[in-house]
Amino acid sequence: MTQKLILGSSSKYRQQLLKRLGIPFTTLSPDIDESRLTAELPEQYIERVTKAKANALLAQLSNDCILITSDQCATFEDDIIGKPHTSEKAIAQLKRFSGQTVNFLTGLYLYNSRTQQNRYTLSEYKVTFRNLTDYEIERYVAIEAPLDCAGSFKCEGLGVALFAKMEGSDPTSLEGLPLIETCESLRLVGLDPLA
């Protein structure tokens, strides 16, 4: 019997990504404090938050399911860059990134409630922005309103027009759920997307 797959996320972007695999799933929304701890490195922050999302949902799981949680942050000049939430902050972030490279970290955690097997992976992706004019930045934010996206862009949309270069092994990690790692993790627990 195939185990039930659960995505521990309320993100519409992660839900759209997981749908690409063609495996039926349900969602649960973890309610956790995602504040960064003092002196916490970005890699530590992402791992802690990704696993905390899973731990917050454990009591709601049946004994026969696979839970996936994920979290992402952008880092630039030793700062963790979050979602802008306002157009003004999105514009300020993009002006800061113009001509620069921003690093994105995406954590993925998979937990099998039947076997207690778990796996955490961290994907890194780098985006180098073109030298952007104020007009281009303001126009982009007005068109796509990337207010709920770390880094203030949607790479799956017009945001790609802001880039000079992208580097990494899994472009879907930039969208919030690394599907290559997700497929590998699912295969390791016996849920092969191609089976």
Notable features of this structure?
seven-stranded mixed sheet; Maf protein; alpha/beta; 5 helices; 7 strands; 195 residues; elongated
Q: Strand tally, please?
A: 7
CATH architecture: Alpha-Beta Complex
CA-based gyration radius: 17 Å
Strand content: 25-35%
What composes the largest sheet? 7 strands, mixed
CATH fold field value: Maf protein
Shape: elongated
Helix percent reads 25-40%
Please identify the top-level CATH class: Alpha Beta
Keywords: Cytoplasm, Hydrolase, Nucleotide metabolism
GO biological process, one term: nucleotide metabolic process
Family: Belongs to the Maf family. YceF subfamily.
Subcellular location: Cytoplasm
Question: Can you offer a commentary on this structure?
Answer:
Its cofactor is a divalent metal cation. Strands 1, 2, 3, 4, 5, 6 and 7 form a 7-stranded mixed beta sheet that branches. The chain has one domain: Maf protein, CATH 3.90.950.10. It is built from 5 helices and 7 strands, in the order βαβαββαββαβα. It has 195 residues and is of the alpha/beta class.
Care to give the gist of this entry?
With 195 residues, the chain is of the alpha/beta class.
Secondary structure: elements and pairs:
Blueprint: E1 4-8, H1 12-19, E2 26-28, H2 42-57, E3 65-76, E4 79-81, H3 87-97, E5 101-112, E6 118-129, H4 134-144, E7 163-168, H5 179-188
Parallel strand pairs: 1-2, 1-3
Antiparallel strand pairs: 3-4, 3-5, 5-6, 6-7
